[in-house]
Amino acid sequence: MSAPAASADFTDSTASAASPAFSVVICAYTEDRWEDILAAVSSVRAQSRPALETLLVVDHNEALRERLLKEYAQGEDREHEAGREVRVLANAGPRGLSAGRNTGIAASRGEVVAFLDDDAVAERDWLRHFAEGYADPAVVAVGGRTVPVWASGRRPDWFPEEFDWVVGCTYRGLPPGRARVRNVLGGNASFRREAFAAAGGFATGIGRDGDRRPLGGEETELCIRLSRARPGAVLLIDDRAVIHHRVPGPREHFAYFRTRTYAEGLSKALVARSVGAQKGLESERRYATRVLPAGVVRGLRDAVLARPGGAGRAGAIVAGVLAAAGGYAVGSVRARRSGVAFSPAPVGEGAHG
Fold first, then answer.
1. How far does CA 172 lie from the centroid of its chain?
2. Whole-structure pTM over 0.85, yes or no?
3. pLDDT at residue 74 greater than cutoff 90
């Protein structure tokens, strides 16, 4: 989960820079998402501003890696056309999303590394809007807006927009337009290569690990670490840089909502241990004290007006807060007992593998 920084609108600097080359990293782990993976790659190849390359990083699944190698070996002599080169790599680190992303960073050749979820498709101008943000040399990261595509065809009445981060999407409470933020959302984000040289890569042990508990927070930890390494660094979100993220049927149910919010609490405990509670929870406090109470009021008002799902949304917000708080408490105790510390992988400039 990301949350808005204290400032909202960001005004472009008059500074200009050459348009950077983009490497796009897509991490995959299961053949169950085969069609989604192909769609994600196709959306990168169709960009109005071509990428230098697309890197598909496969997380310890040799059958999937072999299948993708065969898929993108076809017409290999033509794949070096602008935006069409696809390289398939094996995750060189431990199982999990963070190590997969680090593998992609190390193998990439672009000045900017962008990340796209394997079950999402990017709109045609996705990279073009990212590139505009980097006209200011102070900008080291640009994220975008992630729109849910519900398996049922519509948002469940009870599901509050304030909790769309539960399904990996942009949620109510983030500032509109192009705005400065504490951290970007990892499934729709980009970073200058120099950011990784300054702060290291994603810390393993914080984010997702295949089909295990749906943890998160690795991009939050990295962005906070980056801001410390580069105090003048600017991180942005631009809601014109849009991707559409598939939400499978099981994630539309309250059981997943409860599990994911609890896991977010566990994740925040790990992030707080890595970067300190003051920074690790700074934006979350504003989110919990401003955005969520307003959401409860809105839900109760809708219930009074007999609008569908109003009471359910209010109740889900309260349940989500309690589950996350419980996860944070449990995670904090575990972290203190285990003494776990997280070290980011060294994936700096020039590591083109």
1. 16
2. yes
3. no
